[in-house]
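Batch manifest, entry 17 of 40.
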Amino acid sequence: MKALIEPVRLNDETSELILLDQTLLPGKVEYLHLTTQESIWEAIYKLQVRGAPAIGIAAGYGVYLGAKASNATTYEEFKKDFDKSKDYLASSRPTAVNLFWALERMASRLEKEKSKTVLEMKSALLEESNQILLDDEEVCQSIGKFGADLLKDGMTILTHCNAGAIATSGFGTALAPVYVAKDQGKNISVYADETRPLLQGARLTAWELVESGVDTTLICDNMASIVMKEGKIDAIFVGCDRVALNGDTANKIGTSGVAILAKHYGIPFYVCAPMSTIDIECQTGADIHIEERPGTEITDMWYETPMAPSKVNTYNPAFDVTDHELITGIITEKGILRPNYKESISSIFDLA
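Output type: structure tokens
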């Protein structure tokens, strides 16, 4: 299965990180050509690149480009420049664990190469950042295969936010099972929640599914209950930005509500999660820091004039936490984890 799209790539000759600008979709398909640490930080923060795996890939390439620009001649000087870029990029999005995972992976590779020349260290970092992308391609395809085994011809799934090709290396996590099932000849339909306030479901998921020839129906978030009650949904597949050791998962705001509804209507609820999103140091969802974004995303962003009074208070958390008891299974590249999640997660990480 070939990548459906290339949302993140590197042009090493021109020292450019090339990103599909997801804030312009679906109206315009445009790629950013970023050369500075500030522009890469801004692209991550402003959701021009988004989705946990894609953020990790962008972070790997970003910190490589920061290191590549270093004029250091010793490991100590080079490490100082590397750490400056690493810490700066890490401050862009606090919830998505892939951001920190990728940066720490790059740091570990640098530590292994510390006895080599600065030029050789730069080459090693380039190799590692490329490998992060290649590894994600394999992970997403594996998640797709495990997830597709749960889908039968004629089934309809519901998804929330966007965990598709543009949120990863080009295959997706929560949508990967749909694409694999389609390749297998199964006819799978999708209901996509609009996903307020940033409309990733309407702008991104609906766009890439329609472009891929998948039968897609867009609904507002508060319509999820009625389509479940009417028997239109066979299963729910969502992505996530972090998984705690007990199986609690953080995903785009509104995901926990979908999970609660699924539990009520007896519909299986699956979280598609690369192992890189599992934070074994995080014991429960209560330990996950939830990013709060500007209130203007609620009041102003999609309107010609503000939709709310200027003095109204706003509360705009970007994520919520779905309790592990609401999750039927967590689909990873190693297989489908089932409750007890602390035990099943520990087993794939070989934790004593």
